[in-house]
């Protein structure tokens, strides 16, 4: 458990730093879901928005558990090193994206578009949102929206070799994305402006790149840990 705490913190920071991407990709969807709330339910808007995001985060945790099980199956095979290398490279790509130096990570999202074509009709049937269970289920389906940020974090989580740890890391990552997607009005503008700040994005990107380099198997890990 002590070894898991810094990883949970890292996952939380990845979600928070990736909030700019979430704002651009899911901000419009969040607005559409808000408008989909019937007028008679507007007084419960905050609870419905919380249910949306809870469902989304739980779907991340479920995906982490499932892919984590695959990671456990590969843990004793030579493929485990390959999975860790891919996860590290995706983390480095995420850092480059967060810093605004390279946007190739967004191309990874194309991998999930086929799945989303099957999920989207199910989500449409849940509109308009008239209850908390309906909002929770819609949020859970929303969690499968193609996202390079989620995919890269998911592979990193799966490379830990423990399915429960993978689920916990994805849960922490999802919680990290909450502030941006729950912020409304002026707060949303302030959070978005903060996350788009060049200095913050560069510093965050460098941290994620360093984390990706540390994830790469090799003797350099001991040097990085020492610094």
From TrEMBL:
Q: Is NAD one of the keywords? A: no
Q: Which residues form the Urease accessory protein UreH-like transmembrane domain?
A: 11-214
User: Which residue ranges traverse the bilayer?
Assistant: 12-37, 57-76, 82-103, 135-158, 164-188, 200-217
> Which keywords appear in this protein's UniProt record, sorted alphabetically?
Membrane, Transmembrane, Transmembrane helix
Q: What Pfam families does this protein map onto?
A: DsbD_2
PANTHER family to which the protein is assigned, alphabetical = HEAVY METAL TRANSPORTER, HEAVY METAL TRANSPORTER-RELATED
Q: Which protein, by its recorded name, is this? A: Sulfite exporter TauE/SafE family protein
Origin species, per record, is: Pseudomonas mosselii
């Amino acid at each position: 458990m002590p070894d898991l705490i810094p990883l949970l913190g890292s996952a939380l920071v990845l979600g928070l730093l990736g909030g700019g991407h979430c704002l651009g990709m899911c901000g419009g969807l969040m607005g559409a879901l808000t408008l989909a709330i019937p007028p008679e339910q507007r007084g419960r808007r905050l609870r419905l928005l919380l249910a949306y995001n809870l469902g989304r985060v739980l779907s991340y945790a479920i995906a982490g558990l499932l892919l984590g099980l695959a990671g456990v199956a590969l843990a004793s095979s030579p493929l485990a090193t390959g999975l860790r290398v891919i996860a590290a490279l995706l983390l480095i790509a995420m850092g480059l994206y967060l810093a605004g130096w390279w946007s190739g990570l967004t191309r990874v999202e194309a991998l999930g578009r086929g799945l989303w074509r099957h999920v989207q009709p199910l989500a449409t049937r849940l509109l308009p949102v008239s209850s908390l269970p309906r909002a929770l289920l819609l949020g859970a389906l929303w969690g499968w929206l193609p996202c390079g940020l989620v995919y890269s974090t998911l592979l990193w989580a799966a490379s830990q070799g423990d399915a429960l740890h993978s689920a916990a890391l994805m849960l922490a990552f999802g919680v990290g994305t909450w502030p941006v997607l729950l912020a409304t009005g002026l707060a949303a503008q302030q959070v978005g402006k903060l996350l788009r700040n060049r200095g913050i994005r560069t510093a965050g990107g460098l941290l994620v790149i360093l984390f990706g380099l540390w994830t790469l198997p090799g003797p350099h890990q001991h040097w990085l840990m020492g610094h």
